[in-house]
Amino acid sequence: MRFQVPQFIEIESKIFGPLTFKQFIYLAGGAGLIFLVHVSLPFFLTVMLAVPIGAFAVALAFYKVNNRPFIKITESAVRYGLSPKIYVWKKEKIKKATSIDQLKADEIKEKVPAQFLPKLTKSKLKELSWSLDIKHNIK
Predict the structure, then answer these.
(1) CA distance 133 to 121
(2) Phi/psi of residue 137, each to 5°?
(3) Structure confidence by residue, pLDDT tens digits, 66-95
(4) Residues of the domain holding 48
(5) What is the pTM of this model?
(6) CA 61 to CA 9: how far, in whole Å?
(7) Which of 31, 34, 111, 26 is nearest to 69 (CA)?
(8) Is 38 within a domain?
(9) How many domains in the chain?
């Protein structure tokens, strides 16, 4: 049995005529906000506020900057504006081994037989480090 593989999954489907769901929500939200301003304020102030609100809603719905949606640009601008401009390095505390970590280590020791664990002495470690140093210096 053959199944049809969806193509162009990055393209949002048009739900409300030529608009996607996000575009419709942005435009409906802008229109609703303009309506609330119209009901609560005089006509002159309504016009003064409706133009920027409408422009912002249209920009959210349709405008792209460098092929990125305007909402992402706005989000980045707000995040940049609220974040500190000077980065100060903060040293994180090293957490000590908890009892859970110790229990896990004990479980591993129990599961792995002692015959498979290599036994390294100080002399073997010195030989190994010396041989690695020699190989590294030769290359």
Answers:
(1) 18
(2) -75, -30
(3) 989 999 999 999 999 998 888 777 777 776
(4) 14-82
(5) 0.54
(6) 19
(7) 26
(8) yes
(9) 1
Q: Is residue 46 assigned to a domain?
A: yes
Cβ(78)–Cβ(39) under 8 Å? no
Token digits of residue 118: 């290599």
pLDDT digits (tens, 9 = 90+) for 31-57: 999 999 999 999 999 999 999 999 999
Query: How many of the other CB atoms lie within 10 Å of CB of 34?
Result: 17
25 assigned to some structural domain: yes
Within a domain: 62: yes
Q: What is the 3-state secondary structure (H, E, C) of the chain?
A: CCCCCCCCCCCCCEEECCEEHHHHHHHHHHHHHHHHHHHHCCHHHHHHHHHHHHHHHHHHHHCEECCEEHHHHHHHHHHHHHCCCCCCCCCCCCCCCCHHHHHHHHHHHHHCCHHHCCCCCHHHHHHHHHHHHHHHHHC
Maximum C-alpha span of the chain: 91
